[in-house]
Write a structure and sequence with these properties.
Elements: H1 2-6, H2 8-23, H3 30-38, E1 45-49, H4 57-62, E2 67-72, H5 75-84, E3 89-92, E4 104-109, H6 118-131, E5 132-142, E6 147-153, E7 156-162, H7 165-174, E8 177-186, E9 192-199
Parallel strand pairs: 1-2, 1-4, 2-3, 4-5
Antiparallel strand pairs: 5-9, 6-7, 8-9
Length: 202
């Protein structure tokens, strides 16, 4: 499974446009995006980690007046994001080493964070903390339990990993976040396991 984890970035670079065409525009995650948005200040700044082509998730925030900074490792997908929304920022970067000179009102890692190995996921909580403004919202998807799984995309193995629920809670707490909501395999969100948290203001 380690080899598959090493190939994630290359898969989205090679097959980004295929992913884009298959993703569709159905916003099945809207219920969670609405809850996330409720924690944000009006016209706040959102950091989208693994933003892809910016459609439909980043579009949701842009159309509601938020300033979006998107991070991705796929040049084809970032090019589409830039064409669609040139007034927002789209940066070619690996989320694991991200260190931007600003903080954000909301941080989103939807269907991206779970492609990282366990240790990389643990280290990501420092990245979340470093980029979170006081009382910032944080939302990410994970697996339902500790483990690794291999899917498939365009005939290539697609790596996923998850820590267990108690470890995610401990990592959030240790890095200054309180859990607002958590649903394992949410039937109203295509079975996604979702975490919504908020940075402590102090």
């Amino acid at each position: 499974m380690t080899d598959a984890a090493d190939q994630i970035i290359e898969i989205y670079r090679k097959h980004g446009l295929a992913w884009e065409s298959g993703r569709g525009r159905s916003l099945f995650e809207k219920g969670w995006l609405d809850r996330f948005q409720e924690l944000l200040p009006r016209r706040g700044a959102v950091l989208d980690l693994g933003c892809g082509s910016a459609d439909p998730v980043a579009r949701y925030f842009i159309e509601r007046g938020f300033a979006v900074t998107g991070i991705d490792t796929s040049p084809p997908l970032l090019a589409l994001a830039g064409e669609r929304f040139p007034e927002h920022r789209w940066l070619l970067s690996d989320m694991r080493g991200l260190s931007l000179p600003r903080r954000f009102d909301g941080i989103l890692a939807w269907n991206s964070f779970f492609h990282l190995r366990w240790d990389d996921q643990r280290r990501m909580f420092e990245v979340f903390q470093r980029h979170a403004a006081p009382a910032a919202a944080l939302m990410f998807t994970s697996g339902p339990a500790h483990g690794e799984a291999i899917g498939a995309f365009q005939g290539e193995p697609l790596f996923h990993a998850s820590l267990d629920r108690d470890e995610y809670r401990a990592l959030l707490d240790a890095h200054g976040f309180d859990v607002v909501a958590h649903v394992r395999e949410d039937p109203d969100c295509n079975g996604h396991t979702v975490w919504l948290a908020r940075a402590r203001a102090g």
